[in-house]
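Hey, I'm writing a tutorial for new members on how sequence and structure tokens pair up, and I'd like a real worked example in the thread rather than a made-up one. If someone can provide the structure for the chain below, I'll link this post from the tutorial.
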Amino acid sequence: MLINMDPPGHPRYRRLISRSLASRAVERMEPQVRELCQRVIDRLAGRSACDFVTDVASQVPMQVIFMLLGVPEADWAQLVQQTEVMMNRGNSEAPLAASLHIYMYIDQLASRRIQEPGEDVASQLLCAEVNGERLTHAESNAYFFLLVVAGNETTRNLISSAMMALLEHPEQLRRLRSEPELIPSAVEEMLRYVSPVTEFRRTANRDSELHGKLLREGDRVILVHASANRDERVLADPDRFDITRSPNPHLAFGVGAHLCVGATRARLEARCMFVEILRRLFKIEVSGPAVRMNSALVNGYQTMPIRYRIQ
């Protein structure tokens, strides 16, 4: 899987989708993403309460990534449900069962795309070549699996956790409503403060020393994005949520060769979603217990019931 690869394999496989998710390609999607966000809020009309995670935060990331991948709309909801189960790490066997369900679905979709290729990313992967050879069935499925999960889960968690951060800091919410031009800056602070991806694990491939600690080849190392994003050596008052923070050198998307390939898409979706939320939803408040996901990998909510007034 791409996130576990080292060079020279990693850049070769990353290039297979980098063009589809490059900044210019994603920016051309902005009118479509804005329209999707408007539809999400339109569906809240006539109501005064909803589950923010299910009804708002999950909708646009789900729709965008599944449209890019060529997943039929009828299958979107079940895949989102299975990714949520998979990322909720409890003591049951449900996460493993969910991951198998997703993988089996991807295998079936890949078989259909081989017979009837389209213009979507799934078809591109099935026709792609690395070093003159097409991806194996297992390689294309693993690639697709990563995109389904990462493309939906992380941005959904960003939007839901960022909404909670704004509700917990009403002075920041008021300022953002009065100065919507701050939304791009606010999204960067949301990424830093929330850290939707909490950590990744890596294995040292050689002996080295880090801050006076000896790492031996084969040692497991945890890279904690959430900790880096609160580093007082880099950030002033790092525990403060400040939508005007500048500079904001957060590491929510990682750094270096493994910098998140979907970073531009995630920023666009968050910006467009909060433009629409702030334009049309008022008097937002949490109306019941907000339940966090049981995961060390991602930071997000399973449910977040809210009340609101819409216009």
